[in-house]
Amino acid sequence: MPYDFDQIVERIDQQKLWTFPGGVHPDGRKHLSNQTAIDTLPLPEQLLIPLKQHIGTAGSCLVTTGDSVLKGQVLTSSPNPFAVPVHAPTSGKVSAIEERTTAHPSGLAELCIVIEPDGNDTWAELAPIENYQQQDKAVLLAAICEAGIAGMGGAGFPTHIKSTARKPVEFLIINGIECEPYITADDRLMREYGWQIRQGIDILMHLIGPKVVVVAIEDNKPEAFKAMQKVCEDCAAIRVVQIPTKYPAGGEKQLIQVITGREVPRQGLPADVGVMMFNVGTCYAIADAILYGKPLIQRVVTITGEAVLKPQNVWALIGTPVQTLLNKAQYQIKKQKVPTVIMGGPMMGFTLPSVNVPVVKITNCLLVPAKKELNLNQRELACIRCSACADACPVSLLPQQMYWHSKAGELDKAQEYNLFDCIECGACAYVCPSEIPLVHYYRKAKSQIRIQRDEKEKAEKSRQRFEARKARLEKEQQEREAKHKQAAAARKQATQNTASAAGDAAKDKVAAALARAKAKKASQAEATVAPAAEAPVPENDNKAKVAAAIARAKAKKAQQEAASEAAETAESTSSPADAESERKAKVAAAVARAKAKKAAAVQPAESPATNASPSDHAPAEASSEMSAEEQRKAKIAAAVARAKAKKQATETTATPAQPADDEAQTATEDDSPEAQRKAKIAAAVARAKAKKQAAESAAPAEQTDSEAEQADDKTVASNTQEDDSPEAQRKAKIAAAVARAKAKKAQREAQQNSAEDNE
């Protein structure tokens, strides 16, 4: 059962504290370096600033090669809350941004900013916060973050994250134990800068609001204990207590157990038991950042060991090469069998791969042991199962079992023995009689487990991404199919609508066309009937009009035939009388045209019965109004007119060179059988023309004449077939040829005369 607050405070006041299991008592050797004040170092030729010096993520670089920087200028930035920036330790020029070997047990290279100091040590603009008690806590936390402060006790956890109290805090512990042998940096810091550490404690009290503050110092540091008592005596909430010297009393969980008697859960944090802990170096950096606006660009480093002539503590700029510190302490390489420099103490430190690695924010000691000072060349022997390691373990683990499983690669079984609860203090290895580097095996096993976890997490993330991608593709496919179906349905609907609209439009167009046709027909009927009703035409007048139209058509036809025959005759003859014949033909054609024009002028065109030409409407009216007897009389009159026209054309164009024309003329004048046959043919042609004209009432006169001519040809051919004598056939062919020639000639003459009349 955990102790309550009042009981713990009472025991602290009585200096009756608890303890932790295990632990060892190695030789401290602190007297080597704690006798002199903290010194300063000269500016090195180069400063190597790693971009990552804390637990978390590294920031992105804000400078480029060739840039000039000022002391305290921010070099990196990141929006990640677990990233803190680094700053320029002095003014100078960025000579390179490249990978360099850093202070890490692996000896791997990390990205660093290389700065060449200009010697001016010019500060950038600082922004201290006045009256921080009146400021919002978020402003103070942001200032701590921007100052680049991380835990300086060795863990390097971002201080602004740790300072955010999410649970009620009863005890704020300031760790001044510094339990590892040789290290005296915190000891000298408390002796010389106790008041500034107190200022940092006040700022943390304002941010966290604990009930009690406990400053814990080991009893092997009496000067530091007195200095902190003096600076904290004016505050009743601060207790400065001495802790029995025992390694690793400075461990977070061990110190909490010693002061409060409470144990932090395996997977928990100190805040879960109402406690929060900070290192004295961290308190000093917080006061620098809030009260003076200075970022974390330097720290106290212990240079100790029997291989240096002047062990001491120095203020080292972040990024200072280790070689510069060794030169300050006068490194005696002859005192070592093999050049060896350990960063950290003999229990938890690691050997540096090079003396050119830089000092970082968590560097607190450089140990340079002489020959036989430390048993560095351990000769690993077989485990004798003495259980001394289990007795020394401050976390109550079974180091022997963890060692066997870790060495055999049985990582699952090693985890079953709570491998990750090991704080790597080295107490087990310190007491091992077989000189087995137990912590080395634990670190290696932890690293392998972390790698497996990372790979498993990556595989799991890859699986999740694959499944998410697969689900996304399936969803997109379904959406596309749905869109296609919707589009197809829309197209189908649009097609149906278009077809329906087209059908409706077609129906509308048909209906409109029918309506227009009906309206036109009705208007024509009204236009035709209305004048007829207003001015009725007698039946005899209609008959006269029909007869006049037929006569005009026949006269025009005769004129065309005479002109054509005259042209052919003129072309076929070469006698001296051709000119005279041509003249007579022209005269005859002119007379025919004159008669035709006269007949057209005499026609009663002014009759209001219709606006169309008589030649267009007369045949139609005649065909609809004349009786059979009247048609017969009209046919006879037409035949007589054609016969007269033909006779006149024959007389005009006949020449001695055309026996066929003479025969035709003779047949026309005499009453011989041949003449009678031709008369019959002419009558048949006249009847055919009349019948054709009556059938096509709206056709032009020219078309009617052409059809009549064809009918004449057919009639001539049929009559010729009736008379089968050779003589009759020969004469019929001659007559047909003459008729065709006359028609062509007359047509050409008519066109020429029409052109002349127009001119």
UniProtKB/TrEMBL annotation:
SUPFAM superfamilies: alpha-helical ferredoxin (SSF46548), Nqo1 FMN-binding domain-like (SSF142019). It comes from the Bacteria. Its main location: membrane. Its cofactor is [4Fe-4S] cluster. GO terms for biological process: electron transport chain. Residues 487-504, 521-552, 560-578, 650-659 have a biased composition (Low complexity). Residues 660-673 have a biased composition (Acidic residues). Its EC number is 7.-.-.-. GO terms for cellular component: plasma membrane. It is an enzyme of class 7 (translocase). It is found in: Cell inner membrane. Keywords: 4Fe-4S, Cell inner membrane, Cell membrane, Electron transport, Iron, Iron-sulfur, Membrane, Metal-binding, Repeat, Translocase, Transport. [4Fe-4S] cluster 1 binds at residues 383, 386, 389, 432. Binds 2 [4Fe-4S] clusters per subunit. Residues 372-403, 413-442 form the 4Fe-4S ferredoxin-type domain. Residues 452-504, 521-759 are annotated as: Disordered. [4Fe-4S] cluster 2 binds at residues 393, 422, 425, 428. Residues 452-484 have a biased composition (Basic and acidic residues). It is a peripheral membrane protein. Belongs to the 4Fe4S bacterial-type ferredoxin family. RnfC subfamily. The complex is composed of six subunits: RnfA, RnfB, RnfC, RnfD, RnfE and RnfG. Part of a membrane-bound complex that couples electron transfer with translocation of ions across the membrane. This is Ion-translocating oxidoreductase complex subunit C. The lineage of its organism: Bacteria, Pseudomonadati, Pseudomonadota, Gammaproteobacteria, Alteromonadales. The gene is rnfC.
